[in-house]
Structure formats: C-alpha cells, structure tokens
Amino acid sequence: MEGIVADLADGVQAQTGRLQLHREVFDLTTLARGTALQFDESSSHRRVNFEPAPQLLINGDRARLERVIFNLLSNACKYSPSDSTIRVIVEERENVVALRVEDEGIGIAPEDLGRVFQPFSRLEQGRAMAAGTGLGLSSARTIIEAHGGIIRLMSQPQHGTVVEVRLPREYSQTNTLSEDDRKTE
C-alpha cells in the first residue's frame, strides 16, 4: 500500500513540478543486489540472479531508486513462468550506469510497448496473470527522468522482456544523458 501511495504522490509532484529528490551518493550495485536478494529469497518458484558487478556510485534518491528496482523485479516475477530465471545486471557504460532486469516472461506486443508507461495502464494478458495498479512503470519513468536518466523496454510476446535504466554517473543540474545516448534507444 505504501508503494502505491508513493507512486501516486510522485506522479502528482512530477506533474506540478514539485518532485524533490533526496540525493545522496551511494552504490547502485549494492542497492540492486540487496533488492534482488529479497526477491530471490521470497520467490520459491523463480530464480533471481544478480550478475556480479563492481561498485558504481551515483548521486540519487536511494529510496525512490530502490522502489524502481522493486517495481521492475515485481513485474518480472509476476509475468514470468514458474522455474524461470530473472537476471539483474548493473554495469558502467562510458558516462552512465546501466541497470537491466531481464525476464523469461510473457512479453509485450510491439503495439503495446508505448502504453505500459501510462499511469493505470494494464495490458489484458497481464491482468489475467496478476493483480496490480498499472502505476509501477509510470512511476519508474518519472523517477528515472527526474534523475536525468532514461528507461527503455524491449520485449516480444512469449520471449520475455528487458527493462533498462540508464543513469548519469555523476549527477548535477546539467548532467543528463546526451542526445547521442538517447538515440541508441
């Protein structure tokens, strides 16, 4: 319930230009590993594998980014079959830290990819599989963009989904992803 309220509050704050991040320097690798471990321990029918990664420091809102990772892993677990593997990868690419969550789930049709980031949007096939509010990816996008980053989703029906988040290594008011980084979408 707290997550739903936080997702709603972030959406309203972003729309009114009042979303304030509580920034601190922390290791995104440690945060992602800890969140993945929680899911691996609680999901007896799915394996959540965290790929080994070096320490990657960012300046961001730890609580909000933890909620983003939680939402991505929650979606991966909800929409993946039992006995499947979900991979969490954190790596450095030039001036960005990339976080990827890869699943073996039901996937998303190309014509539906744009809808998944809209608030309260849930795809029909997903509704049949699991409960949800349709706020997770919308909130994740709001938080990632507030950090000067980007989130993208690659998927095919019956072939799983990859969600990638890219965040600047060193955040400042003018340090967002360059136009060249955005073109690789």
What's the short story on this structure?
The longest helix is centred in the middle third of the chain and has 17 residues, at 62-78. This protein has a single domain (2-183), classed as Heat Shock Protein 90. A hairpin with a 5-residue loop joins strand 6 (150-155) and strand 7 (161-168).
Key words describing this protein structure:
alpha+beta, two-stranded antiparallel sheet, five-stranded mixed sheet, globular, single chain, 7 strands
Q: What report would you give on this structure?
A:
Helices cover 37% and strands 25% of the residues. It has 185 residues and is an alpha+beta fold. It has one domain (2-183): 2-Layer Sandwich (Heat Shock Protein 90). Strand 6 and strand 7 (161-168) form a beta hairpin. The chain is globular, with a radius of gyration of 16 Å. The relative contact order is 0.17.
- CATH homologous superfamily, by name? Histidine kinase-like ATPase, C-terminal domain
| Total DSSP helices | 6
In the predicted model, the low-confidence regions spanning at least 5 consecutive residues are: 171-176
Largest sheet descriptor: 5 strands, mixed
Q: Which radius of gyration do the C-alpha atoms yield?
A: 16 Å
> CATH class, anyone?
Alpha Beta
The share of residues in helices is: 25-40%
Number of domains: 1
* Derived structural class: alpha+beta
